Amino acid sequence: MAFDPRIQKSVTYLEEHLFEPLELERVAAASGFSLSHFYRLFMLTTGFSVREFIRNKRLAAAAGELIHSRRRVLDIALDCGFESQEVFTRAFQALYGVAPVNYRRNRRELEDFAATHDRSAEIESRGGYDLLDLPVTVRVEEHERLTFVGMSITTSLTANIDENVIPRFWEKEFAPRIHEIRGQVNPTQSIGFERLDPSNDQLYHLACFQVEPPVAVPTRMTQEEIAAGTFAVFTPAHPLGPREYSALVRYAFGEWLPISGYLLDGDFTFDRYTMRLTETGIPECVKLEVFVPVTKPLKA
Question: Are 153 and 32 members of one domain?
């Protein structure tokens, strides 16, 4: 996955030398920036400070080793760039909420993240296509309770990619009835709320708007209530087609979540599309934001 082009060379340098002593001035110089400017840009585009990114990438690698090997914790710690088991354990517990030995016994979210990553990569590469490099920025934010009203359809990921099922549903079924939804919080921002069953590729999609309750739900429409909580928000450089969307999911679950210390906090995601009218009066999406509910693990 590509990062912002302005810092990509530095990220590549970091990943190639992750388990070695790193001079941050050299990391910044790889992209041609002073250290202070690089710090600000890196945080803006990744959601992590440079030091957090390095530490959390090392910890995620160590977590994978804990799950998939029986190596001693001390050996894993040293190989992943930590000076002692004590320093490693303190950092690991701060990120994941448990000591390494307990993580090895009880935690398997990295395997779930990897399964979603692999499924997205498989969908993205269907037909012999190469995996995409897609710059994405990330932020974490709190939201109060949200209410969505709209029309639903159940399909599959593969059918949506092959047959454009959801875009056609929006155009033919939902768009003609948008005016029936009262109390829209922002008429220029539509929502795509989704639940995916990974066991059978079944995808539930609600084409909707956020509304200010209480509202009357029009005939053959549905209301979804989202509890207040924390969301990781992934914003690509431009709106995405179905293959590109799979690349964003691959990044979110394969790279960002494992190093974030967050756990998933729901069985849904939702997309927010910021729209505008073209000169010919046709609506177009100018910004996509993908919201994933997350939570920090309780400290053990």
Answer: no
DSSP SS3 for 44: helix
Go through 218-231 and write b for each residue having 16 or more CB atoms within 10 A of its CB, e for each that does not.
eeebebbebeeeeb
Residues 290/234, Cβ–Cβ less than 8 Å = yes
- Higher-confidence residue: 237 or 184? 184
Q: Are residues 47 and 160 in the same domain?
A: no
Q: Are residues 161 and 40 in the same domain?
A: no
* Residue 99 belongs to a domain: yes
Q: List pLDDT tens digits, range 46-66.
A: 889 999 999 999 999 999 999
Q: pLDDT of 100-126, one tens digit each?
A: 999 998 887 888 888 888 888 887 887
In sequence order, which residues have a C-beta less than 8 Å from that of residue 191 and are 6 or more positions away? 148, 150, 206, 207, 208, 209, 210, 270, 271, 272, 273
Tell me how many domains the chain contains: 2
> Residue 33 CB: number of other CB atoms within 10 A?
19
Q: Domain limits at 83?
A: 8-111
Taking the model in full, what pTM does it have? 0.89
